Amino acid sequence: MALLTPMTGLSVALGLIEAQQTTLHPQVGRIFVHTLDHQSSALLPEHVAAPPTAPVTYHAHLQGHPDLPRWLRYTQRSPHQPGFLYGTARTEDRGRQVIEVVAYNRDSFDTTQQRLVLLIGDPEGPLLPYQAEFLVCSHDVEEVLPSAPASRFLTALGGLWEPGELQLLNITSALDRGGRVPLPIEGRKEGVYIKVGSASPFSTCLKMLVSSDSQARCARGQPPLLSCYDSLAPHFYVDWCNVSLVDKSVPEPADEVPIPGDGILEHDPFFCPPTEATPRDFLTDALVTLLVPLLVALLLALLLAYIMCCRREGQWKRDLATSDIQMVHHCTIRGNTEELRQMAASREVPRPLSTLPMFNVRTGERMPPSVDIAQVPLILDQH
Ligand SMILES: *[C@@H]1O[C@H](CO)[C@@H](O)[C@H](O)[C@H]1NC(C)=O
Ligand SMILES: *[C@@H]1O[C@H](CO)[C@@H](O)[C@H](O)[C@H]1NC(C)=O
Question: What is the domain class of 1-122 according to CATH?
Answer without folding.
Answer: mainly beta
